[in-house]
TrEMBL record:
This is TM2 domain-containing protein. It comes from the Bacteria. Keywords: Membrane, Transmembrane, Transmembrane helix. It comes from Salicibibacter kimchii. The keyword Transmembrane applies. The chain crosses the membrane at residues 30-50, 57-78.
Amino acid sequence: MSEKKKPWLAGLLSFIISGAGQIYTGAFRIGIFFIILYVLLIIGGGFEIFHPVARLLFILSVPPILWVAAIIHAVLYARKVNVQP
């Protein structure tokens, strides 16, 4: 059996860099997906929204939701990996 993954460390890594916790637990594709999507949302997010308030609301809501989802997923995936035989 492979080394046990620490769920708190997976969550911390995803807290620091969205997707890093997934890479730590072995879910490389999902980790890269979270990193690329987060960067795209930060850099390009909201440019198609013309109203400045709507653009600001988009940037302040969507990337943080993705960030929290990455943290939760990293912790749950680490727990799942630890249970598998």
